[in-house]
Design a protein that fits this description.
The protein is of the alpha/beta class and 226 residues long. It has 8 helices and 11 strands.
């Protein structure tokens, strides 16, 4: 499952775009600004970046420059700034494509796939692992010490979210927002508590002393382990 970093401060657009890309076989991590985007990029391996120019902090040109200095992956500007100067500036800082809003979703997906092909990005889904738990995203299979774990659809999406952002702190609000985006159902605090507990009961050797899914008190959760 190709992993896309979406840097976009329009929450409504980001939510709809994440839902559409998920339905087309992509996994998306959303960052709202330059700081969050670069932090995510430094912690996770992505296959492509979708990037707005106007962000809540900083700008897309700086993000693109920072990404291209550190990694050779496709960067696509997705922005309402369609004048010639912005387009030229985008390509000058290393962008691989420039798409103006509003855009056609199917065309966007085609351009993402085309950009990844140019970089020889494999579409083969990766194995994601923390400790002794592994997700085979090709088959939707979760194993612990080689034995299959049986998860509900929402448990699987929650585990995939944590493993795809291993080592990163995820706030409860962000977790609820991303799960709602994928499932189309609102995930409140009580529901999230239930699913965190169920997940720990299945993946942890000792759910009372979790080693994989750690709580950062007052802030959220993070997945740990090699």
């Amino acid at each position: 499952m190709p992993h896309i970093l979406l840097v976009e401060d329009d929450e409504s657009l980001a939510r709809n775009l994440m839902r559409y890309l998920a339905s087309d076989g992509f996994y998306v991590t959303h960052a709202r600004g330059q700081t969050d985007g670069m932090q995510a990029f430094g912690a996770i391996q992505f296959d492509c970046v979708l990037l707005d120019i106007s962000l809540e902090d900083g700008n897309g040109f700086s993000v693109c420059t920072g990404i291209k200095e550190k990694s050779d992956i496709p960067v696509i500007f997705l922005t309402a700034s369609s004048d010639e100067a912005c387009t030229v500036a985008g390509f000058e800082v290393g962008a691989d494509d420039y798409i103006s809003k509003p855009f056609r979703p199917r065309e966007l997906v085609a351009r993402i796939k085309n950009a990844m092909r140019r970089y020889n990005v494999s579409s083969a889904p990766p194995l994601l692992q923390c400790g002794n738990v592994c997700i085979d995203t090709a088959r939707g299979l979760v194993t612990k010490n080689g034995s299959e774990l049986f998860l509900s659809a929402l448990e699987y999406r929650l585990l995939l979210l944590f493993f795809s952002n291993k080592g990163m702190l995820l706030s409860r609000d962000r977790i609820a927002d991303e799960l709602w985006t994928v499932s189309g159902e609102f995930v409140g605090d009580n529901t999230l508590n239930v699913y965190i507990k169920r997940l720990r009961d299945k993946i942890e050797d000792d759910p009372q002393e979790p080693k994989i899914l750690k709580t950062v008190r007052g802030l959220g959760y993070k997945a740990m382990g090699g």
